[in-house]
Amino acid sequence: MAAAGRELHALEEDAAIGLITSQLDSKLGEAVEEGDALAVGKRVSYLPLGLQASIGLIMERRCSLKDYLHQWNSPRALIHDLEPKHVFMPFAKYDKGHSEVYSGVLTHWTRTQML
C-alpha cells in the first residue's frame, strides 16, 4: 500500500526492465544488459518499491548490476543491506508512504521468501 491506501502491484517484466534501464543506463557508465535487469527485477518480485530500493542501493554503492546480483544473491542478503534512504533518492518515483511501503515490502519478502 502506498499513498492514500493505493496498492502497488508488481510490474510486468518489460516495465521492470524499463524502470531499471531508464534510471541506471546513463549513471553506471555502461549499458544495462536486459538479462541482468530482468534478474534484478525477479530478485525483488518485480515490486516497484523493491525495484526502486535496489536501484538506490546500486547507485549508492556504484556497482554494476552483475556485482549487485553477486553481492546480494538472496532476499536475506538484500534485506540486510537495504535502507529506507534507498527509496528516498532523488530519482524515487513514489513521494508518499515510502517508509510504510518499504516496511510492507520487507514484511512480504520475509513471509514469502525467507520461510
How would you describe this structure to a colleague?
- The protein is built from six helices and no strands.
- 32% of the residues are buried.
- Helix 1 (13-24) packs across helix 2 (34-43).
- The longest helix has 16 residues, at 98-113.
- With 115 residues, the protein is mainly alpha-helical.
- It has one domain.
- It starts with 12 loop residues before the first helix and ends with a helix.
Ordered list of secondary-structure elements with their pairings:
Elements: H1 13-24, H2 34-43, H3 48-61, H4 65-71, H5 75-81, H6 98-113
Helix pairs in contact: 1-2, 1-3, 2-4
- Give the terminus-to-terminus CA distance: 23 Å
DSSP strand count: 0
The radius of gyration over CA amounts to: 13 Å
How would you spell out the order of helices and strands? HHHHHH
β-sheet strand percentage = under 5%
Overall form: globular
Q: What helical percentage do the residues reach?
A: 55-70%
Number of domains: 1
